[in-house]
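Batch manifest line 305
LIGAND: arginine
JOB: complex structure
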Amino acid sequence: MIKVYVNDETSLLKAVVLGTAESFGGTPKLEEAYDPKTREHILNDSFPLEADLRSELTEFETVLKKYGVTVYRPQIIENCNQVFSRDIGFVIEDKFIIPNILKHRRKEIDGIDYIVDQIDPDHLLEVPDEVRIEGGDVMPWKDHIFVGYSKSPDFEKYVVARTNEKGVQFLKESFPAKKVMAFELKKSDTDPRDNALHLDCCFQPIGRDSAIIYKGGFKNPDDYEFLVEFFGRQNLIEITREEMYFMNSNVFSIAPDVIVSEKGFTRLNGILRERGFIVEEINFAEISKMEGLLRCATLPLLRTF
Ligand SMILES: NC(=[NH2+])NCCC[C@H](N)C(=O)O
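JOB STATUS: finished
ARTIFACT:
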């Protein structure tokens, strides 16, 4: 049996699924791209190579293991990009949620069937057909759940809109004791600098009471203001449009004081160290070309208090 429990973004990590790039299918055709950054790199002939993606993920695995984390990897599906495990399932409290994700990516879920099969069926929640929700948009934070989503007609309009209003409703009904705070995200299928693909592309809680945030990722200024109020301005690290493009909000917490970050995030890593965090820097810039980073590549199964 695999035990699942996650109630926030930063408590000590015990078990995680880490994505794989093995047999990831190489450079997609332009019409197969489902995010604008991937599009950009296909057009510029700079899409990453499997060997580089694999070595970045191995570096990540090494750090996780150094901290005693049990690391599961998806079963390999031939010619399928399985780097971003975050979106294909998620845990809130002691429930593992099996979501409905973008149709282009649905088969990725088969890669973690062997893990789901080891979870007590009483702890599995399968979402209804009309609900669309991806783990990158969902963040349990103690008595709150933060969710990124798109209302109609944005949801129907953009391939990069991944969580709908029914997704938010599903969380409210499934976790009645939690305060579900839903934020509409800014979307663009063509410009990665104007696209918050998931909530974790413009915001992430860190430490015990802090967060990284990019104001421009929120469609409604009030939602950004709510988060400023909630965390307190002094506890926020505000990032620029360019830093959001390189995915600075998508670092990953192994513990309240330990954050895995990208080597190139010099400003962010400096601030994190000043604020007392241990920053484990790794290479992840090739993975970032596919519009995801460290949080996106992980699916935490167990965090303890
Ligand atoms: N949680 C995340 N932000 N995941 C990023 C996923 C990126 C992937 N290219 C997609 O479009 O689905």
